[in-house]
Amino acid sequence: MPEKTTMGGAGLIGILILAVVLIAVPHLVSFSQQELLVLLTINVLVVVSYRLQTLTGEWSLAHVVMMGAGAYGSALFAKSFGFPVPLAMIAGAITAGLIAAALSFPLFRMKGFYFLIGSFAAGEILRLIWKRFTDPFGGPKGIQRIPGFPEIDLGFIHIDFYDPANYYYLVLVVVLVSLWVLYRVEKSRIGLTFNAIHWQDKLSESVGVDAFRYRMLAFVIASFFAGLAGALYAHYLSTVNPNQFDVNTMVYVLIWTIVGGTSRWYGPILGVVALTIVDEVILRSIGVDQVRPLLYGLILILAILFLPNGLESVVIKAKDALLNRGRAGVPDGSAALRK
Amino acid sequence: MKSASSISLNRRTLLTGAASAALLPVIGMPKASFAQENVVKIGFLAPLTGPVAAWGKPGLDGCKIWADWMNEAGGIEIGGKPYKVELASYDDEDDAGKARTGATQLIRENEVKFIMMLGGNSWPGVEEIAARQNMLVSTLLPSDLTPDTTTLIAPCEVHPIYNVTGVDWLAANRPELKTAVVCAQDDALGKPSVATYLAAFEAAGIQMASPPLFFDPATTDFAPVMTQLLANKPDILCLDTCYADYVQPLCEQAFQQGYKGQIISCTLDFYQRIVERTSKEFMEGVIFQFPDFDDKALNDPRINFKKPNEFFAEYVKRYGATEWSAVSWEYSSILDLWADAAQRAGSIEPADVLVAMKDDGKGKHAFGDARWWGKELFGIDNALVGDWPVVVIRDGKATIAEFRSIPDWWDKNGELLVKHMTDLGQMWNQR
């Protein structure tokens, strides 16, 4: 069933409630959960940008490395070249986009599993370059003491972005704007072409669509936003190292995306939010640190068994059920006329 | 046959029950109350899961013994009041982001007065919060130290500098060994350790048969690594500070490829398993740096670690002999040092304890009296350095061969160490 693109009153109320929740949430959670909230919001951008790339049908294993390219780029622009941090973040994201553009030429000669393996190899090359060259990438230890986002002091208001609640609001604004851009891309003609390439690439090419260029465009856009997420991450933690962007992290992005579902734009968001709360809040609070990976794995298996179409299928079913209930509650017009 | 609806109901009931059980601790379970007692909370922020867990979890296990013993004895007497010790742990998974979240939880929610970390990858995430909150933090990796890290101390393990004692002992006892090779994972732990071994070999007049071999930490097949190492027929095979998950397959490969020479390593965690998988004969004479605490040499009066043999026996009783690792005693020895300083300060406040700890520039290290040192190498004298044991496998059992002085070696060969650290970009001002 195609996704509805127009919004009714209920949708607007839903968005309003969501906005209130997003604004209020740092004040409702503990200090450590505020820290978690920042990382979670950054990860939302990572998974949603990843989903954009999957629209063309190609699943990359280099997405987290692209995030790293943005993180390293932004860190170097700020630390070594003295760029102001906001500018360095944008420059870092552009760097990730440019690297993706360069990698597209060898990678999009491949499709399917070959692309998956090729993207893994390309990502590893990039990661090993960071590890190999101590100057300028810091080698295995990475880059440390990366400048943080500058404080804002207007006399009557002082905002220190080291405070996780303040940084959360900054990240939230950046991520919401990014999600809006990604949503508009998906709903535009470009997004429709991505889908066309995914399901009928030969047919698309036969009507004049340049599949290579569109695949490249999806990869570049996804990498730009992954790079932006990496830049937000680097300036928050003040450190980047090659291990933060290894294949283990990529596996988490895949899990979040798959468990959330990819047929709706919000699917990966559900995945990353639900699984982060399960792993970082619920399982940690039980106090069973050493068996946490085991329990996490068990929950994943259960999720796949009971929700093969992802968490988004629950939302879709709930929405359908509400709509049906709504229709059942409204008297049939023709019946009224018959009376 | 059950109807579909009844299956669905059961499934729902099951899931609801599981979710409720999972949420219960979040909503709030009754906790033991120590409101009537003075309690001092100590934070433990180290990897408890993942590939580096072997250097976190056994340390937490050791700390539990330390805390139980201390509390059974009535707690720590500080400022005339007995304090019960409570441990608060957080699994940082060797990740800076998780470490930052963990540090925030420990400092601002658990209100700990001291945090023990493994350090390395996780420390940069904690550095600023520790500085802002003036929190006293310990690391096992002094390579985290810089002139700015004034509240960070390395009071137990001056990794990797103590590795010089093993090479020094080897050169004195087996002067016929003239060539060596070294390998390490290419990361922040492997590189400074390689620099240290290179300096120690050079100081001992031992030539390198080939340049250091750095392998990727994702390596799972160690056969080609070992083949390359043994190609130049070295007298000494040095396994540097390889993680526990690498040391075992590397030893197995050396055994399978017929190596007969000397092995030296920083750690040899869970060495009994390596002996089982190779042979007693093959492992005879292997040198490393971390003793079993049932060693009688630890009963020497100069040793400051309290009741080492009893500690080892209790550890084995609780967790099993094969669970003992390099870090099983280290965090506990840091707790000894902290408790001693807190008693002398008459306070549990981090700033007071740090001042007392560094009083006179000397401290009571686990293996004897030591001095606060490190300015030349780390830019700050926050590493406690003294004697360190050289451990040798004899008849399948780790045995302390001798205690050797790290400061003595440094006084004679410090320039060599600085040279090799600089060459590998490991000095504090290069990081």
Annotation keywords:
heterodimer; A: 339 residues; mainly alpha; two-stranded antiparallel ribbon; 15 helices; 74% helix; B: 431 residues; alpha/beta; Rossmann fold; six-stranded mixed beta sheet; five-stranded parallel beta sheet; globular; disordered N terminus
Write structural notes for this entry.
The complex is a heterodimer of chains A (about 350) and B (about 425). Chain A is globular. The longest helix of chain A is centred in the middle third of the chain and has 27 residues, at about 210-235. In chain A, helix 3 runs antiparallel to helix 4. Chain A has helices at about 10-30, 30-55, 65-80, 85-105, 110-130, 135, 165-185, 190-200, 200-205, 210-235, 245-260, 265-285, 290-305, 310-330, 335-339; strands spanning about 145, 150-155, 160, 240. Chain A has 2 domains: about 25-245, no CATH class; about 245-325, no CATH class. Chain A contains 15 helices and 4 strands. By secondary structure, chain A is an all-alpha fold. Helix content of chain A is about 75%, strand content about 0%. Chain B is of the alpha/beta class and about 425 residues long. Chain B has 2 domains: about 40-160 and about 310-385, 3-Layer(aba) Sandwich (Rossmann fold), CATH 3.40.50; about 165-290 and about 390-430, Response regulator (Rossmann fold, 3-Layer(aba) Sandwich), CATH 3.40.50. Chain B is built from 15 helices and 17 strands. A 6-stranded mixed beta sheet of chain B has the order 2-3-1-4-5-6. In chain B, strands 7, 8, 9, 10 and 11 form a 5-stranded parallel beta sheet that branches. In chain B, helix 2 (about 55-70) crosses helix 12, helix 3 runs parallel beside helix 4 and helix 12 (about 330-345) packs across helix 13 (about 350-355). The longest helix of chain B is centred in the first third of the chain and has 24 residues, at about 5-25. Chain B is globular, with a radius of gyration of 23 Å. The N and C termini of chain B lie far apart (about 70 Å). Mean pLDDT of chain B is about 90; it is low at about 1-10 and about 20-35. Chains A and B meet through helix 2, helix 12 and helix 13 of A and helix 1, strand 3, helix 3 and helix 4 of B.
